[in-house]
């Protein structure tokens, strides 16, 4: 019976593919496929036409198994469509509608042109409906995979952008941290800091945690790993930005940072300069050159 349904489907698609395509495009428009402006009508029509042709060719092999070699081209097309829609910002509903909206046009065309063998037509409709369900799920899986990859890539880019290493003075670097410090971000922080220590030949690194909302035992461990790695590269670390609330939390948790800490970045910078034998002092009026004003360097 399944073989008969496949034959009916192939015959009807061969004979009425243009009619199916026209109704399918109309159905997609009614479902709002073009409202977002992310895809043009000509591109949508090309995708629909290509899918129908590949589906017809796959069914001509006498199988509904979407994992078979006969459906390889269909799977490739759906993978490309789902990936492009995920990248362009389509919603899951908009993506899966590309497949599921084909059901009604096929049912209508098969009902009108199915011929006298109603049982075979019914079987063809049922089998094709199940097939489209599987293809719709396959498209959704491809969409989700691409979205997850995009999210991971964006998180990595954000982590890299949110961990800049700044040169404050010759041999003195600052690493301002903002947000939660987890294991993955710690790795990015460590790599950026170590690379900067080597490139700048820095002997002191200030890790500022003013923008870190909370410091728990795990966060402290991540900080200590970064400090230890910097020490192996020959750089001493100073941690700044420990607010009163964070200090109380660390004491309550019994967290100990085996590193010099300062309340503010300015204090940490002054300490770093003193370690280099430098100091910051205000100019006396007698030291100011004649004609110097506040707007001059």
TrEMBL record:
InterPro entries: Bact_StressResp_Reg, RsbRD_N_dom, STAS_dom, STAS_dom_sf
UniProt cross-references to CDD domains, sorted A to Z: STAS_RsbR_RsbS_like
Any Pfam family hit: RsbRD_N
Keywords per UniProt: Phosphoprotein
Record SUPFAM superfamilies: SpoIIaa-like
Domain STAS: 162-276
Protein name: STAS domain-containing protein
Source organism of the structure: Azohydromonas lata
